[in-house]
Amino acid sequence: MSEIPLTHILFVSTALFFIGMYGLFTRRNMITMLMAVELMLNSVNINFVAFNKYLFPENLDGVFFTIFIITIAAAEAAVAIAIIINLYRSHHSIDVEDATEMKW
Amino acid sequence: MSASVIIFYIIAAFILGTGILAVTTRKIFRAAIWLLFSLIGIAGLYFLLEMNFIAAVQIVVYVGGIVVLIIFSIFLTQKSGKEMQKPILVRQLFSAVATVIGFALVWLLISHNSFATNSTSIVDVNVANIGTQLLSTGEHGFILPFELVSILLLAAMIGCIVIAMKTKQEQL
Question: Do the Cβ atoms of A68 and B149 come within 8 Å?
Answer without folding.
Answer: yes
